[in-house]
Amino acid sequence: MSARSDFSYFQKQVAAPPTRIRRLAEILVPSNRFAIAGALVFGIVIPELFHPLLAHGHSWAQALHPFDPMLYASATALLLAHLVLRKTSKLPFVDAKVMVLPVCVISFAIVMIMSGFVFRRLSYYHFTTAYMTGVMWYSTLVVLRGRLGRPLVALVGIEQIDNDLLAMRVDWTLWHGTRLPRGADAIVYDSNRDYPPAWERFFARAVLRNIPVYDFDHFREMLIGRVRLRSKPELVFGQLLPSQPYLRIKRVLDFLAALVLLVPSLAIIGVAAILIRLDSPGPAIFRQKRIGYQGRIFTCYKLRTMRTGVAGPHYTSEADPRITRLGQRLRKLRVDELPQIFNVLKGEMSWIGPRPEALSLSRSYEQSIPYYRYRHSVRPGISGWAAVHQGNVALTDAATRKLEYDFYYIKYFTIWLDIVIVFMTCRTIVTGFGSR
Questions:
Q1: From CA 96, how far away is CA 85, in angstroms rounded?
Q2: Could you tell me which of 225, 261, 416, 432 has the C-alpha nearest to residue 342?
Q3: Do the beta carbons of residue 122 and residue 6 sit within 8 Å?
């Protein structure tokens, strides 16, 4: 039976029995099939039934063909938005409510652009109805999922958890019996322990009853978004091998995105450079040697935000007096990073990845953190997983925590994680989080 502990405990089996409507909601709302079926029914099928009423009176609603190809394009856009939301919502720190609108905008924009290359004329009825319905439908699902309660996780062979886990929206319970916990959403075990055969059968029964069973370290990583560092990192970091196919694909995507954004970036850099020269003496572009992909040294470009000729450490401290008044604004908006688009074009950096450190700072970290070099297994980025959570840090303790974020990014190196970082970067630009 379950045992109470000093952390949050919620025993679903003694709670008041849910109503039939709530039981039905608990079954349907989390279901992936229910989500996509509802999106297609409300976004495609029902609007199509009312399409003849609008097709004659409004030109934008007129079908181009008895079987309007834009109907299928709209369904494709909904499926794409559903896929992105499904993949990204599983990542830590992702606020699904914030993701719905930008994901739908980008998904429908991509499909509309592709449709424009294929068809000479476009009918916007299905795109309009599917987009509006998609945003409302997935926003409603997110709200309902948040109100259905927090997941109950049973811990087997784990006596305590740290404060990072206690802060998560999860109800924890210690489980000592070999009967399946009633109402548990997941079971977590310690892979470093040897469990007797009775417990092995317990885990097998849980899997057969569709209760997921997770290793504690993996479950912790997925909740807090960091890979915990250990005294023998080689036992864990052998897994930190980024996907080689995605490394190549990412390089192509980085180059194409840099080409598309080159002209507007040059315009912004030009205006900023003039303002920098007017604001304080010195060059507009700051150059610094940094450690990059596979430990190679490269020259990183930034817009200068500090006064020249003023001594100070190689890192930026909180309220650093060397930062100019204009530099503070450039740093808050991340405009000072724009010249790194040339580093991306040259293949020295990526749009997303661990932030490159100054040569001297990197050497210092390598002396105090033996496994620091693992972060060089991917190209450094203009923004990254650690950057959107911590901002700029320099002290060794903070750098160690930053390294845990970087290792999480390398271990779960996927396009979905990159998409989340892009959206979170936009949030940091708006809020100014982490700028120094």
A1: 8
A2: 261
A3: no
Region 42-61: mean pLDDT is 73
Helix axes 69-88, 415-431, angle to 10 degrees: 80
Q: Where are the domains of the chain?
A: 2-9+150-224, 31-147, 244-431
Give CA angle at 153 (148, 156), nearest 5°. 165
Cα separation, 210 vs 57, whole angstroms: 52
Residues 6+ apart with CB under 8 A from 338: 265, 268, 269, 272, 303
Q: Phi-psi region for residue 157, left (φ > 0), alpha (ψ -120 to 50) or beta? A: left
Domain 2-9+150-224 CATH assignment equals 3.40.50: yes
Instruction: Specify which residues 2 forms β-bridges with.
Output: 175
CA distance 351 to 43: 34
CA separation, residue 203 to residues 187, 192, 194, 254, 420 (Å): 8, 15, 13, 43, 33
Q: Is 227 left (phi over 0), alpha (psi -120 to 50) or beta?
A: beta
**Contact assessment for residue 303 and residue 283, using Cβ atoms and an 8 Å cutoff:** no
The encoded tokens of residue 292 equal: 């990059």
Amino acid at 173: T
Q: Is 300 helix (H, G, I), strand (E, B) or coil?
A: strand
pLDDT digits (tens, 9 = 90+) for 148-204: 777 889 999 888 888 888 888 888 989 988 888 888 888 999 988 889 999 999 999
E strand map for 41-183: 152-156, 171-175
pTM listed for this prediction: 0.80
- CA 214 and chain centroid, separation: 21
Q: What is the CA radius of gyration of the chain?
A: 26
What angle, rounded to 10 degrees, do the helices at 69-88 and 96-118 form? Answer: 150
What distance in Å separates the CA atoms of residue 310 and residue 414, rounded to the nearest whole number? 41
**Strand intervals (E) in 152-257:** 152-156, 171-175, 186-189, 213-215
Which tokens belong to 95? 């606020």
User: What is the DSSP secondary structure assignment for residue 290, as one 8-state letter?
Assistant: E
